[in-house]
Amino acid sequence: MFNYFERVKSRPEIYNQLTCRELLFVHYKCPMEVNKQDSWSQHNFIQYILSGKKAFHTPGHSWLMRSGDAFFVKKGACIVEKFFEEPLCIMTFFLPDSYLQTFMQENNTLSHARWTEPPKNELLIPLQVTSIMTAFFDSLIPYFYSDTKPSENLLELKFRELLLNILDNPENGELKNYLTHLLSPQYESFQQVMEANCLYNLSLQDYAKLLNLSLSSFKRHFILLYKITPGHWLQEHKLNHAYHLLISTDKPVNDISFESGFENSTHFSHLFKKRFGLSPLKYRKENEVSRPS
């Protein structure tokens, strides 16, 4: 499991960067690494595919993004799949909650009465890309390679221009609705974050970071809410998900282990046998025998 934001920030030789206080732009050609990885970020981001394609997978949902597509990804975890038939070139804009909340407060006319229903609990929001947005993305590329870096004031104006262009388009109402709800006192409950991200190999420190809490505050909140330790709760959710995949699909055990957030298939098999009394393969075989024809 890797932290996308931290990886990008720590490797400027690969990920060309422009920074403005808590904001970060990156433009890069994706390194030829593994084609499928689990990834997470403590910050939201907008991503634009300049060339190539990639996919995002969460339990029960997948999105395939191609050249010319843009999307808003909420902070959290997912499985990222890359395809290397052609170079994968990407532009990413990291946007912390705090920045988006301030932006929506300063631009309160963007809120629309029509968008008052709770936002969907999906990681990714596809965006409609207009010719204006395409021109905007193209206009940014020279800034990454200029000998003189643009000022922070100019970069912040560019961030604001991007958000205003997106939110001014009625077809991007789902994102406008989500950003409006960032201002709600009920925004993103502790439970929502945990249940959306429990099937990934995140540490407790990672969950705390996602919730903007210290590790000790996270553990205290968790036990108050669930009446159980976070480690035990997470293990039960992962094992139950793996059990469901094992008896309802033909996926290999290695894939089930990966998709259920276990460190490796050996560790998964050990925990599964401890909980269900049989190894995953034996459990599947016995279940198939006992299943009515």
UniProtKB/TrEMBL annotation:
Keyword Acetylation among UniProt keywords: no
Domain named HTH araC/xylS-type is located at: 188-286
Q: What PROSITE patterns has UniProt attached to this entry?
A: HTH_ARAC_FAMILY_2
The record's section on InterPro entries has: ExsA-like_N (IPR054015), Homeodomain-like_sf (IPR009057), HTH_AraC (IPR018060), Tscrpt_reg_AraC-type_HTH (IPR020449)
**SUPFAM superfamilies of this UniProt entry?**
Homeodomain-like (SSF46689)
Keywords annotated in UniProt: DNA-binding, Transcription, Transcription regulation
Question: What is the top-level taxon of the source organism?
Answer: Bacteria
Tell me yes or no: is DNA-binding among this UniProt entry's keywords: yes
* A Pfam entry, by short name: ExsA_N
GO molecular function list: DNA-binding transcription factor activity; sequence-specific DNA binding
Instruction: Please report the name of this protein according to its UniProt entry.
Output: HTH araC/xylS-type domain-containing protein
Its organism's taxonomic lineage begins at: Bacteria, Pseudomonadati, Bacteroidota, Chitinophagia, Chitinophagales
